[in-house]
Amino acid sequence: MPCPANAWCPDASALPLHQHVVRSLPATLILRPAVAALLLLPAVLLAQSPLPDIRIMDVDVFPESITSTQAGRVYAGSTKGIVYRAEPGAAEAHPWIRPDERNGILSILGVLADEPRNTFWLCSAPNFFGPEPPTGTTALKAFVLDSGAFKGSYDFPAPAGTCNDITIAADGSAYASDTGNGRLFRLAPGASALELMGSDPALVGIDGLAFSASGTLYANNVRSQKLFRLELDRSGHLEAVSELRVSEPLGGPDALRLVAGNRFLQAESSAGRLSVLHIEGDSVSMQVLRADLGSAPGATVVGNTAYVTKTSIQYLLDPALRGQQAPPAMLYAVPLSAAD
Questions:
Q1: Residues 76, 180: one domain?
Q2: What is the domain count for the chain?
Q3: Which domain holds residue 31?
Q4: Is residue 2 part of a domain?
Q5: For the purposes of burial, counting CB atoms within 10 Å of the CB of 128, is it exposed (0-12), middle (13-18) or buried (19 or more)?
Q6: What CA dihedral angle connects 233, 235, 238 and 240, to 10 degrees?
Q7: Does residue 314 share a domain with residue 231?
Q8: Which DSSP category does 41 fall into?
Q9: Dmax (CA) of the chain
Q10: pTM for this structure?
């Protein structure tokens, strides 16, 4: 099955870096282990060096969702409607896509790099945190992943909702969650409009979405603090919603990203926590990787590293802080080697 777009999947045919270097060495050097070892050292250190934390180079950003490519580019949305991008291994993220009259971006929630289709997806939604009343229609928007060029916009049908997260099915369909109305939408390849695939009262508050490696769809609920398996029929429509038993109470579950198999990253916005979820049937064991983030709405996987968003959302919610400049927005690198 193709690698889901919201996961990092290794190239099974690729040789380890040191094997490529050894194959390129002259035979005389291969016969001289000491010399060969010295030449190999920089490449090995580069392959094993930890990835840096990433600072978003702007003020009052308030990132929500983040995503990444296999090459290691990292992207972050923001309440300002700007997408920021960090190059592989870089410690800074800079503006990449800006809102304009043509693309109509409002505030950004979910973001997703879809490499097989060279598409960057984002959820545009009215800014509920601004001083002015929120206006505009929530929509799923598509851009060219290579260039950031605008491709298309797909409004959510009434009643007014909130596009919150995106995941990609094996057939290339983009699924998007509607938090306020508990709805699940799909944009099939080549379609010009979103299709309602189902709704359920249990999904009011639906946030993160992710397919497992075998194609099972999971979702969390930021309001009810629950995790669900969304059972789809052969046509991709929602057939049943099954609540899963999580080993620990959740605190604002938000981002949900596939690591491998049935293992997922989950970031919790109110608990300020990053965890790995191991799903087996209806049971979920939760392994906390970091729990000191304050508010952590976004997460993504780059190789053996998880990136997690730290956002100072209190500067938008607390009247005593509103209007003051928030601390720099950070994406923290957390080794996945800490997970079983």
A1: yes
A2: 2
A3: 15-49
A4: no
A5: exposed
A6: -10
A7: yes
A8: H
A9: 72
A10: 0.84
Letter string b/e over residues 307-333, b meaning 16 or more CB atoms within 10 A of that residue's CB:
bbbbbbbebbeeeeeeeeebeebbbbb
Q: Say whether both 292 and 178 belong to one domain.
A: yes
Same domain, 44 and 60: no
Task: Judge if 196 and 316 occupy the same domain.
Answer: yes
Listing DSSP states for 86-150 in one string gives E-TT-SEEEEEE---TTT---EEEEEEEEGGGTEEEEEEE--TTSSSPP-S--EEEEEETTT--E
pLDDT tens by residue, 282-312: 999 999 999 999 999 999 999 999 999 998 8
DSSP string, 196-237: EEEE-GGGTTEEEEEE-TTS-EEEEETTTTEEEEEEE-TTS-
Q: Residue 64: helix, strand or coil by DSSP?
A: coil
Residue 1 lies inside a defined structural domain of this protein = no
pLDDT tens track for 173-187: 999 999 999 999 999
CA dihedral of 315, 319, 321, 325, whole degrees rounded to 10: 60
